[in-house]
Write a structure and sequence with these properties.
With 142 residues, the protein is mainly beta. Helix content is 7%, strand content 52%.
Length: 142
């Protein structure tokens, strides 16, 4: 059974943090806060808050850290993961995390300009075609 899919819109609590594993793989962590807005008379008030930790890997991790910062409204799609652990004092705790598949700024109240990242093929050639993976020049077109 796969992890449940989730889509969130919320504000970044802090700047995303970029780290690298021992093998050099990029990973970024960030937290988003969401709350339900309720109308009370003529005023809007915030309802219950929900804070979720998100994790993103590889090139997208670097892109997230380069593009997003604290306070920005973001949209995240991914898979919800539950993790349980025990503290040093013996308390059992459960946390929920999102393994992000896609992250971007919300354009509801902002403008963003996307810059495509060039990819390097295994052959060393740089291409702007994301579907060109491993294609050689000696193969005739369709």
């Amino acid at each position: 059974m796969s992890l449940p899919r989730i889509e969130l819109e919320g504000n970044l609590v802090a700047d995303p943090e970029l780290r690298f594993t021992a093998s050099g793989k990029a990973v970024a962590n960030f937290r988003i806060a969401t709350s339900e807005r309720k109308k009370q008379g003529n005023d809007w008030i915030d309802g219950d808050e929900c804070f979720l930790e998100c994790t993103v890997w590889d090139q997208m991790a670097e892109n997230v850290c380069e593009s997003l910062s604290k306070g920005q409204k973001v949209i995240v799609t991914g898979r919800l993961k539950q993790r349980s652990y025990e503290t040093n004092s013996g308390e059992k705790r459960t946390v929920y995390e999102v393994k992000a598949d896609s992250v971007g700024p919300s354009l509801r109240n902002a403008i963003a300009k996307a810059n495509k990242v060039e990819r390097t093929q295994a052959t060393g050639r740089v291409t702007d075609d994301p579907w060109a993976g491993g294609v050689t020049d000696d193969i005739p077109p369709f």
